[in-house]
Amino acid sequence: WASDPRFETVIRRRPTRSVRVGALWVGSEHPVVVQSMINEDTLDIEGATAGIRRLHEAGCEIVRLTVPSLAHAKAVKEIRQRLEDSYQPVPLVADVHHNGMKIALEVAQHVDKVRINPGLYVFDKPDPNRTEFTAEEVAAIGQRIQTTLEPLVSLLKEQDKALRIGVNHGSLAERMLFTYGDTPLGMVESAMEFIHICDRLDFHNIVVSMKASRAPVMLAAYRMMAFRMDAEGFHYPLHLGVTEAGDGDYGRIKSTAGIATLLAEGLGDTIRVSLTEAPEKEIPVCYAILQAMGLRKTMVEYVACPSCGRTLFNLEEVLHVVRNATAHLTGLDIAVMGCIVNGPGEMADADYGYVGKTPGTISLYRGREEIRRVPEAEGVEALIALIKEDGRWVDP
Ligand code: SF4
After folding, report:
1. How far is CA 227 from CA 206, 218, 266, in A?
2. Cα–Cα 20 to 30 A to 378, which of 31, 213, 222, 348?
3. Tell me: the pLDDT tens digits for 283-328?
4. What is the value of ipTM here, to two decimals?
5. Domain with CATH 3.20.20.20 in the chain
6. What dotted CATH number matches 301-389?
7. CATH 3.30.413.10 domain span(s) along the chain
8. Quick one: CATH architecture of 5-292?
9. For the CA of 312, the nearest atom of ligand 1
10. Residue to mutate, 302, 303, 308, 355, ligand 1, most ligand atoms under 8 Å from C-beta
């Protein structure tokens, strides 16, 4: 039983197709991609360009912007041009919040991926007296969606660009609500309707998202979606997110609860942490989630004990100083431990250890080997010297 895949220490990702988004690839063969969205109005060309650049410089790998009108779609052309002229190309995604194809067709020429929301493909005014749709009506609506979607799909196919089928729990189409209710199954059926249409049009550059503002709902929807797609032979990558997660600690924890749980199950090829804060603040959270799950390593991994009555120095302060001195050394694991009572194994096999030895003295470890003892006041400098001796130091 111990060899059951559930007990592995490395996450095995669900095998997916690779989908190109500009210069990046999204899918299980590639690192999980970090993305976010600017909150500037796309018509504010200068502001939006600066917002994209800020996000990209913060480590955001794909940037989304909203395109609610044809004027916005045309502004994206200018934004893209400005980025290419004065900065560098950044993979861009346009959020098209309507079912009018004119806007989508315009903006698709200027971005690398178009995101549509199947819930917004409603052709007739909702009738409050209706309680159900017949199978024939659903089929007829499917046909109308296909006719509407076809020019966009053809354009994306021709230009080798991607489509995100982005279902939101809060905006399911009426026909889905009637048949499946406000449920994860309704979300899955909504996405599958569009996947089948794209399949009939022989288009497969697809990424799927199933966002909800409640983590248990999004967990169920993504799990069900992955199961259903794989069962039907559609191995499309998933974009993960808990929508409207809020701000502060709880927003981060809520997003992490949803995203990390799915990542641990092997689901998810790109992520967004949606915070009600400056979008740049989402990026370190994304990278921290990926690093904590062992999926990407983009910063020093600090292993530190919580401190207790045995602690031989001010652990919080020393950890802070060690972090300030070494945070730029990507790829290292550094342990800061208040004492060695439980042995070097407690340091989780860190590359280096800074460990309380006796009051006023600390030990420096390289892996599990104690290298030297120094007075506490010289500890951080001695740690840096050791990293330099090993040729693993770079200047900040
Ligand atoms: Fe306490 Fe030592 Fe454990 Fe830190 S490593 S929590 S100081 S026993």
Report:
1. 16, 14, 12
2. 348
3. 999 999 999 999 999 999 999 999 898 888 889 999 999 999 999 9
4. 0.98
5. 5-292
6. 3.30.413.10
7. 301-389
8. Alpha-Beta Barrel (3.20)
9. 7
10. 308
